Amino acid sequence: MANRQVDPITLSVVRGVLETTQREMTLALEKTARSSVFNLAHDYSTALFNHTPEMILQGQDIPIHLGSLIPAMKSVANFFEGDIHEGDLILHNDPAYGGSHIIDTCMYYPVFYEGELVFWTVCKGHLTDIGGPVPAGYNPEAKEIFAEGLRIPPIKLWDKGVPRDDIMNMLLTNMRARRDQEGDFNALIGACQVGARNLTALMDKYGKDVVQECIAELLEMANAHMNGLISQVPDGTYSGTAILEDAGHGFGDFDITATVTIKGASCHIEIESPPQIPYFINSYEGNSYSGVYLGLMMFAQLPPPYNEGLYRNVTVDMGKKGTLCNAQSPAPHMNCTTTPMETLTDAVRLAFEQAAPDKVSASWGHANGCNIAGWDSRHDEEYVTMVLASIISGAGATASQDGWHACGPECCFGALTSGDIEMLEHSYPIIIHEYGLMEDSGGAGKFRGGSGTRWAVEPLDTDMTLVTFGEGRRIPAMGAAGAKSEMVHKKVGRLEITRGGETQIITDNVIETIKPGEIAANLNPGGGGFGNPFERDPLKVVEDVRNGLVSIEGARLDYGVVIADADTLSIDEAATVAARAAA
């Protein structure tokens, strides 16, 4: 550690102000945004960087955003090196410059103090539309990135404090539901300004040098936490492979492999993935960092502070350019923040679990969602939105508890919210017929995986375009420590469209037209279980049956618990012992 003498009370106060600043930025986004993706689902993230730029604080927001902010911030700062001024505001979404996917747009606001660049405040959010041929951006028919929407390389929206209204107008003119996009852009800008105001006040109170010394200490603190953890892992090379299922692209299933090499307090992670394909699941390098870091943090489970110091002794090789996890233009990519990121996360987590089996945990349900768009005759305008409620899946179980219900998917790790049904129906011309937990969706285990959800919608008076994305419709979330499910078909996602009394089940990513009177139900997978399901207390299984989480058939097939009476839910003890012994 450097020879710094930081007063611990001052350090604590500075740390508290940084954390409060980040939370105030997210609150500003929630309270001022226009779209339901922002103000209901909270699909946004905030972070603070120093001038280096090094991330000095990440919000407890969307993991799949936060990891990619690190290379993206460096790319943006490098692009404008020598041309960064007080009052500038930079916009960016391009994966070629470290972005995740182009629907996630990011604002970068340099914070100057006494004429010197000291910090950056950064806000990233999922817009409801980014132009292109398909509403909401997810185009399963895209063969290249140019068929997905607007690529925005680093560009100044404000130049030395002067707004570039021509640039903003050009962007908004190419997006659907302009009012929503403009409102969300303004929310991102306002949140950056809130962060800058607080950081300036902090330096006014303590002085720039003291604040920077405190931040350096916090970076070293995070580094020490990670080094301490890695040092406990035996030196060696460990590997994990996860399967990415074919969701309609026709190329078959893919393996993604992570190889982790531990040496002392250093960690090197190497990713191997197949060549990129003309389908929207390719991930560019910046986005893939998010998947790798999430897998690492699922294993690490470290206390705060959460900043770039965590990764000082962690190196990553994403593999060859032109591969699924290290794509290059013109690869289509819009689905990349869920697919293949959740599979990449699983591979990294599995590799670490080979190194330290005592820290094993099950996989969360993978995203399997939908976007909707159409004409809102109530306001005589187009509507478009990503339905975050449609990707809420179950969490994985651990060695000490069942998985949480309805809090996934893995890429968001509990940070998304689905919002009130009434607010969604107020915002869009739809009726939501159902939103609830799915029976038998949680992975079986001594500790059960969390349940996934079913979300069913009908358009009011005009046709609605529905676009599906994701996977997890054939392969359930991975269990751990011997967990295994016999009833697999209830634990995977799917789309069910009911027309004229008949229901069609769809497991590919598709673009569908839903008419008034027709109902589209999106079903999300549950989380993986932990441990041998035949070791689960039969009384807990009965309680799950009573609560609608497990069916009587599921109790027998998945847990070897035979229920004798459907009314009283009494257990046939002899049959249960026999069923479990026969396994």
Automatic annotation (TrEMBL):
Q: What top-tier enzyme class does this entry carry? A: ligase
Domain Hydantoinase B/oxoprolinase, by residue range, is 7-533
GO molecular function (one): ligase activity
Enzyme nomenclature, EC number: 6.4.1.8
The record's section on Pfam families has: Hydantoinase_B
Q: One GO cellular component from the entry?
A: cytosol
Tell me yes or no: is Ion transport among this UniProt entry's keywords: no
What biological processes does GO assign it?
glutathione metabolic process
Q: Report the protein name in the record.
A: Acetophenone carboxylase delta subunit
